[in-house]
Amino acid sequence: MRTRLGAYATFCPNPDCPDKGQQGRGNIGIHSQKEQRYRCTTCRDTFAATRGTALYRLHHPVDLMVLVVTLLCHGCPTHAIVAAFGLDERTVAAWLHRAGGHAARVHAAAVETGQVDLGQVQADEICVKVCRGRIWQAMALAVPSRLCLGGDLSSARDGALVTATLRRVAALRRLRRAQLAEARRIRQAVTDGYTLTPVQLTSPCRVAVLAEARQVAMHLMRTRLTWPMPARNRAFPCERIGQRDHSTVLHGVAVIAARLASGRQEDAYLRHMVRALGATLDATYEAEGRPYQRAA
Ligand SMILES: [Zn+2]
C-alpha cells in the first residue's frame, strides 16, 4: 500500500539533527515518492515514511499486517491466522508486539497528555481468561473517538478496581480542562490586543489583520504551551478558530516566526504586539495562576 507523502507535517527522526522532532520547519523534502522516503535538508539524512511506526521495515504487505492485527484484537486464535494466511507463528506474535508497542507509545503521547476529547466516557469491567484462571479488567473509553483511556487489572471484581479507572479518567479530564482554559486565555488576549470579536477571530475571512491575529494566536500557543502541535490544532477547533487543519496551523506558526526574526521595519508593529501579548499573559498567570503546568 503506497500513500502520497506529505512533508509538511513530518519531522526528522535523527537524534543528532538540530531540527529533530520539529514539524513545519521546512527542512523535510520528499526524497523518493516510489520508495516512500523523506529527506531532511538540515542533516541530509533520508528516512522511510514508516520510520517510528509499527510498519517500519515490514517485509509483508501492510494490508496483511493490519488484517492480522485486527483479527487478533477481536480474539481470533493465532493458530487460525497461521492456517488461513500461511504465516509463521513467530511472525504473527512479532506483529502483535509491534502493534501493541506502538499503541502504547501513541497512548502515552496522545491520551495521557490530554489531547483526546473526552466528551462522554464509558467505563466497563470485563472478565479475561488467562492461563489457569481469570482476571478482571476495568476499562474506560472516550465515546467521541472510541479511544481507550486506560484500564486496570485485578484478581477480584470489587470497588477498588473500577475506582482506580475512574480516578484515571478524572485526572485526564482535569488536565484537558486546564489546557482548554489556557488556550482560551490566549484567544482572549489576542482578541483584546487586536480589538476583534471572538467571531471575527474564528471566521473564515482572510482580511490581513484577521489572518495575522489568528497566526499570532497559533504562534503564542506554539511558544507558550507545552502540548505537541496536534493538541493545539485540536484546541483551536475546540475554541472554534474556524476549523483550521494541521498544515494551516503549522504554516501560521512558521509565518509569524519568520516575520519576528526578519527585523524588517514593516514587522515592527507585529513584534511589539507579540511582546505586549506575552506580557499580558504573564501578568494573568501571575495574578490567577497557571491552569496547566508545563512538564519539567
Ligand atoms: Zn535532520
Task: Name the features.
single chain; 296 residues; alpha+beta; Chromosomal Replication Initiator Protein Dnaa, Chain: A; 3 domains; three-stranded antiparallel sheet; 9 helices; 50% helix; 14% strand; flat; binds zinc ion
Query: Which structural class do the helices and strands define?
Result: alpha+beta
How many strands, what sense, and barrel or not for the largest sheet?
3 strands, antiparallel
Count of distinct strands? 6
- The third-level CATH topology of the largest domain is Chromosomal Replication Initiator Protein Dnaa, Chain: A
**Widest sheet, order of strands:** 1-2-3
Which class of the largest domain in CATH terms?
Mainly Alpha
Give an account of the 3D structure:
It is a single chain. It is flat and about 75 Å long. Residues 231-235 have low confidence and may be disordered. The protein has three domains: 52-111; 121-171; 177-288, Chromosomal Replication Initiator Protein Dnaa, Chain: A. The protein is built from nine helices and six strands. The strands form two sheets. The chain has a three-stranded antiparallel sheet, with no helix packed on it. The protein is α+β, with helices and mostly antiparallel strands. Helix 6 crosses helix 8. Bound molecules: zinc ion. Zinc ion binds at residues 12, 14, 17, 19, 40, 42-43, 45.
